[in-house]
Amino acid sequence: MRRIARIELLWALLVLTLPAVWGEDQGAVARGRLLYAIGGCTNCHTAEEGEELAGGDPLPTPFGVFYPPNITPDPDYGIGAWSDTDFIRAMQEGISPHGHPYYPAFPYPSYTRMRESDLKDLKAFLDTIPAVKRPSRPHELRFPFNIRSGLWLWRWLYFRPARFRPDPFRSQRWNRGAYLVEGPGHCGECHTPRNFLGGPDRTRAYAGSVLGEIRAPNITPDPEFGIGEWSDGDLLYFFQTGIRPDGDSVSGAMAKVIRNGTAKLPETDLRAIIEYLRSLKPVAWEPF
Q: Are residues 83 and 143 both part of a single domain?
């Protein structure tokens, strides 16, 4: 009888524990799904009419053509063999599991600001994507940008690894917006102009840029060249639908950002992003 009682007790503990563990895992996946949206992973790593995250369309730049790799959980051709430590190092430091530096076409200079807990949640969601056995296509870069060892110099010049630190003198919503814009959203990677080495011009942060086929407008609060004349309602509607105040719809890369990213965010996060963008330094500059 005692043995039966012990078995029943163990069974009861197992039944009570499993839902809690399952719920915790599902919570990580749900949080990771939101980060996946704001991070725009599918925008680059999924080809038109292709399988999700199995490798993206060519990305033409002044340095050559980049091919976003397969980041499905396939252990041979994707990131299925990566540990959480490997993933976090890649995202925060821009270093591969083999110790090689990544090209900054992968926006790790922004992802470096992400919290480790958020990166683990993102990895938990990525692990739910169907694995695809497809090798990634190598980049086609012109000299000298095809020499990967030169990236160490680029990193020394331009990369500043650091986690996001909340500003205690700002509101909680402002800090949430700052984290989303500066970290997972990596908005500055496209909207900040770059020099001939691909280094960001921080004196004109968010003032817009042209990089290959990507034309990113000025999103500072400047009233003439930026979004200074847009109301909060204009911005909210734009992030939800991709429609500008003049009634025109956004196209190109930003259309993907809206469709796969900001349109899926809760309104509280969108308003946080708006509050942060309002606080940027206005820059009177037209990138194109």
A: yes
Are residues 143 and 192 both part of a single domain? no
Residue 223 to residue 232: CA distance in whole angstroms: 14
66-to-105, 115, 136, 254, 261 alpha-carbon distances in Å: 8, 27, 11, 19, 22
- Joined together, the tokens standing for residue 151 give 């990236």
Prior bond to 193 cis, omega within 30?
no
State the amino acid at position 93 in one-letter form: E
Domain annotation covers residue 278: yes
Asked if residue 144 and residue 126 are part of one domain, the reply reads yes
SS3 assignment, position 280: coil
Q: From 163, 190, 208, give the residue that closes a domain.
A: 163
149 and 37 in a single domain? The answer is yes
Q: How far apart are CA 269 and CA 234, in angstroms?
A: 15
Which residues are paired to 101 by β-bridges? 95
C-alpha to C-alpha distance for 92 and 84, rounded to whole angstroms: 12
Pairing of strands 140-141, 64-66: antiparallel
pTM for the predicted model, two decimal places: 0.89
Tell me, yes or no, whether 5 lies in a domain. Answer: no
Instruction: Provide the domain limits for residue 239.
Output: 165-288
H-type alpha helices, 95-207: 108-111, 116-126, 151-158, 172-182, 188-191
* One domain, residues 78 and 32: yes
Q: Mind listing the pLDDT tens digit for each residue in 206-241? A: 999 998 778 899 999 999 999 999 999 999 999 999
Residue at a domain's end among 131, 148, 163: 163
E strand or H helix at 239? helix 232-241
Q: What tokens appear for 191 in the block?
A: 């909207």
Q: What mean pLDDT, rounded, does the chain reach? A: 91
SS3 127: coil
